[in-house]
Amino acid sequence: MSLRRICFGLAAIVVSACTVHRSPEIVIESFGALSSGEPVSLYRLVNASGSSMEVIDYGCRIVRISVPDRDGRVDDVVVGYGDIESFECGRERFFGALIGRYGNRIAGASFRLDDREVRLTPNETLGGKPVHLHGGTKGFDRVMWHGEPLEEPERVGVRFSRRSPDGEEGYPGNLDCTVTYWWTNDDVCRIEYAATTDRPTVVNLSNHTYFNLKGSQGGYVMDHLMQVEADYYFRNNEQFVPDGAPRPVDDTPFDMRQPCRVDHAIDRPDEQLRMMRGFSVCWVLRDWDGSLAKAADLRDARSGRGVEVWTTEPGLLTYTGRGLSDRMIGKEDRPLEKFGGMLLETLHFADSPNRPEFPSTVLRPGERYRSVTEFRFYAE
To answer: Contact at 8 Å (CB) between 172 and 113?
Structure first.
C-alpha cells in the first residue's frame, strides 16, 4: 500500500508516493512574482528514472525538459528563459507558452462566423495589412492559470484551467479551457487540451516550446535529423498564411519523408524559404482523421537524443529560431543564438476561419474541443 506524503516548506511543496520502488513525484516551488505582484508557481514533474519536466502557471509555459543522452547523461533540451521577469518582459514573448485562443495567424484580424463578422485584435502588420497572431495582444501566454497537481502510478501531471471571457481579444463566447501536462515514466510529455463555449467561436490551441536535443549548451539546431509524415505543405503569402491549396513536397526543401538534416536544402532557391527568410513551414500531415498519429521524428546524432511527435492535429509547423540572438539571455545566464532552437507546433492550419476548405476550428455550445499532442523522448 502506498503512503501519500505531503511536506510543506517555505519554498516548496513535495507531493510523492512512497513505495518500495521509486515513484514519480511532483515538486511545487515559487517561481517569483509578476510585475503586478501576483505569485507564480513552478511544477516540477519527476518520473521514476529521474527525468523531469518543469512548467509554470504563467502562460502554462514549459520551462525545462531534462532527459538522458545515449550515455545516460541527463540534460535540459528546452531553449528559453529561466526566470519570470524574462518570461514577462523578454524579447521573445512565446518561449514555452500555451498559444490561444488561436495558434498562428488569421489574415485581416477578422473572419465571418454564422453571417457575422468577428473582428479580432490586430497585433501584427504584414505586407501592409493587419494580422492577428497567437491570440492577440494578451493571448493565453500572458495570463495566469489555476494549477492542480495530478498523480497516477506511472505518470504525474498538472492541469491548468481558466475562463477566457466573452470578447477577450475580440473572440466571441466565454471559453472554459483546461490544459493538462503529463510526464510519464517512459519520458513522454503528453499535452491534453480541452475547451467548451457558450457561444459559437473558434479555437486552435498549441504549445510554443523551442527544442535543442544537444542539451543546455545549445548550438546550431539545423544539423538535427528530421523526418515528417507529410506529402504536402503550405506556401505562405505576405501575411504568412497559406497562399492557396497545399503543394506537394516533391523536389522541395520540405521533402522530409526520409530522415535528413533540417538544413539539407537551405540554399536551394525556393519561394517559401525566401518569404519566411528561412526554414519555417506548415506541413499537412498524412491521412489525418483526428486520431493520435505520428507526425515527425527529430534526432541529434551526436547525443543520440531524439523526440517523436504524435498528435491528433492535422498540421505540424516548424521554425528554426532565426529570431533568436545573443541579446537574449537564457537559463543559467547563457546567451541564446540564432538557429539555436526548433519549434514543433501541432495545430490546425493558419487562417482556417477564413478558409472553409480547411478543417474547421469552429466550436459551438454543447460541443467539446479536444486535442492531444505527445513528445516521446528517446536515446539511441
So the answer is: yes
Give the C-alpha separation, 222 to 266, whole Å: 10
Alpha-carbon 298 to chain mean position: 15
Active-site hit among 54, 345, 348, 374 = 345
38: number of CA atoms within 13 Å, CB side?
10
Neighbours of 155 (CB within 10 A): 18
Cell output for 143:
495570463
CATH pick for 3-379 out of 3.40.47.10, 2.40.50.140, 1.10.3660.10, 2.70.98.10: 2.70.98.10
Contacts of 215 (CB under 8 A, 6+ apart): 69, 73, 75, 76, 77, 303, 305
Give the phi and the psi of residue 333 in degrees, each rounded to 5: 60, 30
Tracing cell 487540451 back to the chain, one arrives at 193
Q: How confident is the model at residue 5 (pLDDT cuts 50, 70, 90)?
A: very low
pLDDT, the chain, mean? 93
- Does position 14 have pLDDT exceeding 90, yes or no? no
CA distance 183 to 160: 14
State yes or no: is 367 an active-site residue: no
Candidate list 132, 134, 208, 224, residue with the active-site label: 208
Which residue ranges make up each domain of the chain?
A: 3-379
Q: Is 146 a catalytic residue?
A: no
Residue 261's DSSP bridge partners are 225
Share above pLDDT 70 across residues of the chain, in percent, rounded to a whole number? 94
Q: Is 348 helix (H, G, I), strand (E, B) or coil?
A: coil
Q: Name residues whose C-beta falls within 8 Å of residue 21's C-beta, 6 or more positions apart in sequence.
A: 48
What contacts 15, CB < 8 A, 6 or more positions away? 4, 5, 6, 25, 26, 27, 28, 149, 151
Is the bond leading into 101 cis (omega within 30 degrees of zero)? Answer: yes
pTM, full prediction: 0.93
pLDDT in tens, 222-252: 999 999 999 999 999 999 999 999 999 999 9
Rounded CA-CA distance 171/174 in Å is: 9
